[in-house]
Each structure stands twice: as structure tokens, then as C-alpha cells.
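Input.
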Amino acid sequence: MCGESCLTIQGMALNVTELLAGAVKTALHAAALPAPEAVAWEIPREAEHGDYATNVAMTLARPARRPPRQVAEAIVRHLPAVAAIERVEIAGPGFLNVFLAPRWCAEALREILLAGEGYGQSDLGRGRRYRIEFVSANPTGPL
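Output.
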């Protein structure tokens, strides 16, 4: 098991990017840096650039009044220990490349397989009635 900070299928975080964003926001707070509303993540094309990447250090450089690379270094230095993260590398002017821990990925996959057909199902909204309306807006007139 990967511990309390591990993202599990039934855990507190809904997905990997939420877990990563939470860790980055914790690091920003610890480093006394401004935090964005959201942290944008992308999956790099090249495997050597990690499993996920973000340019959050570059977007925060101006409000922090520091060079992007210094912001990235502060984030990495204050990043909390998270079982899902094997390592974080700083690339170029301040990109953060995140590498997921293989053991954590294997545990997450094991939980998905154990859930079987029930994986991803939810009772949210079950038993409630909803009305869905389709509106065909006239582009030349008011709505």
C-alpha cells in the first residue's frame, strides 16, 4: 500500500491531476508564492519529459516577481511527499515534469481490476428526475 497520501480509486482525489495540483498548491503556500485558481497539466509527447507536465512556474513568475526557474525550484523544494510522485524535474525555463511512481500506478491498476465492472459507476443522481431541454438558438435574433 502507498499510505494515506496515496490516491486510491475510493480515495479523496478524483484523478491524478487533482492530486498533483494539490501538491503543487501546497508547495506554493509553503514557499509563500501566489497560487493560481487552477494548475494546467498536459501529458508530454516524449516519455523522457515525464508522465505529466505543467508550466505553472512560468505563469506565476510575474506575480511572484521572480524568474520562472526560481519559482519552479521553490515549488520542487517545498513539494510535499506524495506516494504517487516518484520525482519532479525542472526543464527549460521552468517547466515541471512529473514522473509517477510505478508502484503507485500498479496499486491503482490493481484497485481498478478488483473493482471490475463496478469501476467508475456512481449512485450520484440515481432516483432523481431530470428535464433536459434542447434549444435551437436563432443566430440572427435574441435568445
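Residues 16-30 form the longest helix (15 residues).
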